[in-house]
Amino acid sequence: MGKLGIIGTIIYILTIVDVVRSKFHTDTDKVIWVLIVILLPLVGSILWFLIGRGKAVL
Fold it and tell me: Which residues cross the membrane (predicted)?
């Protein structure tokens, strides 16, 4: 695995951890985000950091 693959894997894992640790209004929102990130690793991570984090309860 090249350096780019390692970086991608690290970002993927950090995204899942960030989603799981984030608070949401409902548990359904969290499950949906986890599924998005798992099923669409690159796109899901980008979407989470662009729009998902803003929708999580702070």
Answer: 6-24, 31-51
